[in-house]
Every structure is written in structure tokens, then in C-alpha cells.
Amino acid sequence: MMPDKFNDRLQAEAIRHIQESEAYAALALREPAHTSGQGLEQHVLDRARQMGEDVGLGARLQKTAEAAKKVAFGAMALLFCLGALAARQAFDGGQQGSVNFFWLLLALLGVNTLMLALWAGGMALASRKAKTGMLGQTLEWMVAYWMGKLGGKNGADAAAAQAWFAVMNAGAVGRWNLSRLSHALWLSYLLGGSTMILLMLAARQYDFIWETTILSESSFQTLTQTLAALPQWFGFSAPTPEQIAASRIGGSPANAEAARQAWSGLLLGGMLTYGIIPRLLLLAASWVAYGRARAAFRLNLARPYYVRLKQKLIPATRVLGVVDADEDGRPQADPEPQQAQEETPPTQSCWLGVELDNAHMAAGDGVSEAFNLGNVLDREGQHAALQRAQALKQTPLVLAVSLQRSPDRGLKRFLAQLTEGRKSLTWLELCETAGYFDQDTQGRDIRICDWHQLAAECGIEPQRVVHRVIGTHSEGEMKHG
Known about the structure:
Layout: H1 6-20, H2 40-55, H3 57-92, E1 98-100, H4 101-125, H5 134-151, H6 156-168, H7 171-203, E2 207-209, H8 217-233, H9 241-246, H10 256-296, H11 304-313, H12 340-343, E3 350-354, E4 372-376, H13 379-391, E5 397-402, H14 409-419, E6 426-433, H15 441-457, E7 465-470, E8 476-480
Parallel strand pairs: 1-2, 3-4, 3-5, 5-6, 6-7
Antiparallel strand pairs: 7-8
Helix pairs in contact: 1-2, 1-6, 3-4, 3-5, 3-6, 3-7, 4-7, 4-10, 5-6, 7-10, 8-10
């Protein structure tokens, strides 16, 4: 069984929020001298763990989770009471001793059914990156207010709360977490209403009636029998056609006691089958989906923050390929960094340039002819490259692109086709002319992030996005971007 790293990733996100927000500049987080792990994410998690220990971040995140849980339980208790009050109001709104059955059922289940439909529509249309709706924002505001009262607006508690909600209210984790809360709240409302119905029916005597101005009696008979189908399957009683006809306002059932029992059974059965059971099943399903979403949660390593962090945690590892040998005879170092084998493409990798200019074509000079797939410049070239890449599907592939151009949708489609079925065997090489971004380092960082984002969308792992600076005078140096 794989260990659950959700809390570790949550702590890494909290560190990112603290370091990216000026509001928490007073929180002095000590940068660790050394991080360990396989791959960029493990380095990030190890760094977050060490930095979080200084401010007790793990405990503060747990404190936020506990606060959110208490708020949720408080809201459930409130909804239980509101459901009971709504049922009481629905009974008291009728004539003395008589209750319009359909108005009562609509009052108790109508809003719940409408909100259920809105939830289903929202889940169907929700973007994976979209934040959850008003419910999540309200819970966030209430807990943030609470945490702010306890620890101050700019304290570590507030930072932890902000980071916690940023993860728990967004993406698949947020959708299913808030779905759990929504179903739990409505379930509380329905249970409160059902409890009050039981009490009212046990302590008082009501005659159930129906009335209409424009509809026929047969319409209500059909409606009642349709509503009763599911409750009867669960064993609840339902009125007969004769009892339905006699319950019209002004009518008088032959056996009033039996009619009351039948209508009461249909009311309770309707609450259970159309309200409580669907919410209970959806709550269980949301709970399972939430667990899966937690297990599938990953850091977005294409974010600018993590791309910059990658340059720090996994710096340049070795020199590859001499484009133009140094005439001064400067000795070539042969460093053997700790992540070289993981980060560097295998020696016998296919190399393919993607719309490279002449200067950047030098990046493929060290590749043997058998593995050099050339440079793709047009649609025909793309078609030929896809065929060759398909024929060499088991061979590692290095895709070289120019850092001096921006990625676009056409390029993304092409790279996605190239990497299909071989994501674990693909590297993306960002070629940069030395000195090109000297006057625009911020633009260079943004461009690197854009390419990392494209690589992530194509399934290329972040540690396999390598950066190659092509010197104008002497050498091509590969380092991680």
C-alpha cells in the first residue's frame, strides 16, 4: 500500500503560500541546507518538511482542519433545527387539523431536490481547476475569521488556514470535499424534518387533503400512485384510489383512520426514499471520491514558484555536448552529480528538433546520425517525424525546442502526439542562446514556466525538462531549467 503523501503535499503548498504572500513576510522560514529524495517533488516535500518544523506548520494545518470540522458540525446542527422548524411550519400552515399533502411534501423536499439538481449540474460542468462555490467560500471565511481571532491575520495560523483552504476548496479535492459537506448538511436538514414529522404525527391528529382548481381528480390519483411506487417498494403504506378520491377537500373517507395511516406512511416513505436515502448514498459516494482525489493530488510543479525552486534544488548537473570546442584548451570537467542518471537522457536517445533556427540546431551536433531525427519545420515534417517516432517507440526521445519562442496550441498538439504512449521515455530540451535574456530575466523565467506547463500537459515529468544554453563562443551547456 502506497503511503498517503497528501499531508506532505499540503504542507508544501502552505510553504508556497507563505513565501509568495507579502502578508507573511514576517514569518522567518529557514531554508534547509540540504534536501533529499528521488525526483523534484521529493526534494520539494523534504524541503517543506524541514522548513515547516520551524513554525510548527504541520500542527497548524491540523488545527485548521479541526476548526473546519467543528464549523461543519455546528452547521449540521443548525440545519437539523431548521429542518425541524420547516416541518413544523408546514404542518401549522394548514387548516385546523387538516394538511394539504402535496404542499407539505413540496415544502419539505422541494428545496432539497432543487439544490440536488444544481449540485449535479455544477459537478457536470465544473472545471477541474475551478474553485468550489459559495459553500466553500463561506466555510473558508468562517474558519479564517476564527483562526484570525486566535492567531492574528498575519500569523502562522492564518497562513496555514489560507493554504489549507486553497487546496481543500480547489480542484477534485475541493469538489468532493465540499460535496461531502453539502450532502451532510442537507441530510441533517432532512433528518430534522423527518424527526419533527414523526413527533407531530405521534402527538397530534391530522387529516391529509388535496385540492385543485384546474386539474382533474385522475391527475392526482396518477400523481399519488407514481409517488407511492418507491415508498411501497420499501414497505410503506399508500392510499388506495378510493382513499385518494375521498381525501379531496370537502370529502370524507369511509374509514378516516385508515386514510390517515395510509397518507402518513406515504409522507414518511417519501421523505426517506426521495430525500434521505439519495443524500445518504451521495454522501457515501462523495466520501469515496474524496479519498481517491486526495490520493491523486499532486503538486503543480509547472507553477513558477516550483520551477524556480527546481533551479535551486536540482541545479545544473553535467556538461553535455561540445558545440564548438574551446580553442584555449580549457580542460573539460566531468562532474558526476547525484541526480545525473535520473535527469539526463540516455546516451542512445533519439533527438528531434522542433522548429529550431540554425543557431539552435547546434544542439544536435553531438547526436549520431542514426539517432538524429532532424528538425521539424512544417506539417509534412511533423507527419514524417510522427511516423519515425512511432517506429522507435521503445527508444528514449529528446525533443529540442527554442526557449526564445513561446509555446502555442499547435506545438502542444504536436508534442502530445509525439509523447503519446511514451511519456516515461521523453525529455524536453529547452535551447537558449547565451546572453539572449540577459536584459529580461523575468521574461526568461516566465518563458521557462510556460514550457514547463506545456510539458506537464503533455505528461513529461518536470525533472525531464532540461535546459541547454548554447554559447556563442565555445560550448553548449545543459542544465536543468
